[in-house]
Design brief:
By secondary structure, the protein is an alpha/beta fold. It has one domain: NAD(P)-binding Rossmann-like Domain (Rossmann fold). The protein is built from 3 helices and 4 strands, in the order βαβαβαβ. Strands 3-2-1-4 form a 4-stranded parallel β-sheet. β2, α2 and β3 form a beta-alpha-beta unit. The chain is globular and about 35 Å long.
Length: 95
């Protein structure tokens, strides 16, 4: 069975390296990001080796409870490599 990992913030600097490493291991990757329709963010990830057929993009917002549910569903692991645009205290975050 193939491992599936969800990378929240997968289009960012750290997250894109996690995505690349996961693809190199032959894993399926579900990238959660603010705007999965932004080709300036998805094109470089889609062009990574092993990405074809192994990468999916989902919308999600750190401050919106439940917005990552679809991306996380069916994942074997979740990596959070995201940081809010406007940092809030831990008590204000609702993931």
């Amino acid at each position: 069975m193939t491992t599936t990992v969800c990378v929240i913030g997968g289009s960012g600097f750290v997250g894109s390296h996690v995505v690349n490493a996961a693809l190199q291991k032959g894993w399926k990757v579900r990238v959660a990001m603010r705007n999965p329709n932004d080709e300036s963010k998805t094109a470089c990830l889609s062009a990574l080796p092993n990405a074809k057929g192994n990468i999916e993009f989902f919308a999600g917002e750190l401050d919106k409870k439940g917005s990552y549910s679809e991306a996380i569903k069916g994942s074997d692991a979740v990596v959070v490599a995201a940081f809010p645009e406007e940092p809030k205290s831990a008590t204000q975050m609702r993931i």
